[in-house]
Sequence to fold (155 residues):
Amino acid sequence: MLSIRPAKDGAIELTDRDKVLTISGRSMRLADSEFSSPGEYEVEGVEVVYGQSAALIVWEKMQIVVTFSADKPTAFEKSQFAPCSVLVINGETSELDKAKATELFETYDPSVVVFSHHVNVSGVQDALKIEERDVLKLSENTLPTEGREHYRLVG
Fold:
């Protein structure tokens, strides 16, 4: 089981209680490793595929895509990061409208969408049922089999 929550410094933390992956803007940190440029990495059983506008994290049998911006995903990201279990909309995607959200949802086809506490969801709030959470627990067994769940981190 993974937990995702906002960190004190404005970052987001993903943790399984043993390891903590911190996402801050376009930078990710896990143990003594930091990722901020395209490439494939593996640290302590967690795989990170870092792209141009998003990164794929494979952890606890889940594929978690974290966006860095609202830029169109690259062909590589479209082919390798989808479908994903969880889509975390983060970073420079501070203003999200229906068109950008629809493109991200169609590209990555997530079961769960998590909006960072930095993202202004007012442009999509009317179209989506978004539940606010200070901590969200994620597990392969609890992902919805139909439909899509939407959460916004607060705190």
User: Anything to note?
Assistant: Residues 98-108 form the longest helix (11 residues).
